[in-house]
Amino acid sequence: MTTDTNGAVGAALDHLRQHRDRHREELDEFLRIESVSADPDRADDVRRAAEWITAELDRIGFEHVSLHETSGHPVVTGEWLHAGPERPTVLVYCHYDVQPADPLAEWVRPPFDPRHEDGRVYARGVGDDKGQIFIHLKAAEAWMASAGRLPVNLRLFFEGDEEVGSEPVDEFIAEHPELLAADLCVVSDTGMQDDNGTPAITYGLRGIAYFEVRVSGPFQDLHSGGYGGAIANPATVLVQMLASLHDEHGRITIPGFYDTVRPLTDADRAASAAVPFDADEFRELTGVPGLWSGEEGFTAAERISVRPTLDINGIWGGYSGEGAKTIIPAWAAAKFSTRLVPDQDYHDIERMVVQHMRRIAPPEVRVEVRVIHGGAPALTPLDHPAVEVAARAPEDAFGKPPVFLRSGGSIPVVAALEAHVGLSSVLVGFASPNGNFHAPNEWMPVANLEGGMDALVRLWGALGEMTADQLRGG
Description:
With about 475 residues, this protein is an alpha+beta fold. It folds into 2 domains: about 5-205 and about 375-470, 3-Layer(aba) Sandwich (Aminopeptidase), CATH 3.40.630; about 205-260 and about 310-375, 2-Layer Sandwich (Alpha-Beta Plaits). Helices cover about 35% and strands about 20% of the residues. Strands 1, 2, 3, 6, 7, 8, 15, 16 and 17 form a 9-stranded mixed β-sheet that branches. Strands 11-13-9-14 form a 4-stranded antiparallel β-sheet. It has a 3-stranded antiparallel β-sheet with strand order 4-5-18. A hairpin with a 2-residue loop joins β4 (about 115) and β5 (about 120). The longest helix has 18 residues, at about 45-60. The chain is globular and about 85 Å long.
């Protein structure tokens, strides 16, 4: 960086340090909003979170701040475009909706009552993803308060439907590309490499296709003593169908499922092998007796990141109360999801899965398969000009070089931005990988919150020394 940029970065970092106590109070205020997008009864809370963000953007100094109605929850956009036409324009994406907090009994304190303990903040959404929105807000505020400007042109794009599939946001992107035009998208909905402050740059994401299947038999629950042996048991049929979706080699048995999977190159496998992965530590952290052998021919690290998977997410039906109730249930149901890799099309996978489940169902039952949501995989080349710059900032902030990885998770909007706006994304996230996302007692280290603000202040400074053409590789 030039001397002038170094001085401006230093001033912005000083501002962050001087206002840490205020930041903690503001973060707690944001986390207390119960923005659970999957719960219709929380729609007003989800909107309140969007309104909280718009008020912050106005206060910081962003312009054209808007709350956009969608077929789901609101989208929030804002921009500051005064760095000059030759400077890069960066779009920032995060989501402000959170997962349901169930099971509530397993939380040490109520999920929307932030708890600060042992250098961590515990609350639903602190890592996924409201805490990361907050990091972006405070990094931008630090530049605006200390320098009166940002070193790059910055657009912000926050959604409230990510945890339920982002379908309304896909529509928004297709309808409003002018609000999202940029040279690069920076996404903060991922994590660090470990819980010890090792940064990670994520350059790939898996896609997803999510389903619900319901097997129905008799018109009501039947006495198993009087009907067992003559009536097909929907619960038995369901588990047999689900069990058949993998073969003895760990491969998914749906015809055509692997037809378009892009083979791993030597570089892909080398990048995966370079990511630290301790099988014993992974087993201990998850509390399992051993790791599943999974798909033959691939390491565990590859299977959780760069290979497609299918997992049962829930199964129910029949009697599950205390004691015994000898019945043949009238129905049984399950939810399951597939994680997809380049070049799988989630629409094709949806069709394949629905057809396959209907095909393998025995005629003695009725089967209904419902598609819940889907999203495409995404991949940014490792040699993209932004990747090196994006790697230096967290290294300076955390004192460790980042690892480069492809995430096993899915962020549908990344692929949508590439498809509709032609925008490549670099994922720079600061959550801890074991921070209990989607589980009780979600947490994030204070060091990651503060280090993330530091890293973004540095990242904007570094990108501000590039031209838009350089950032796009021109």
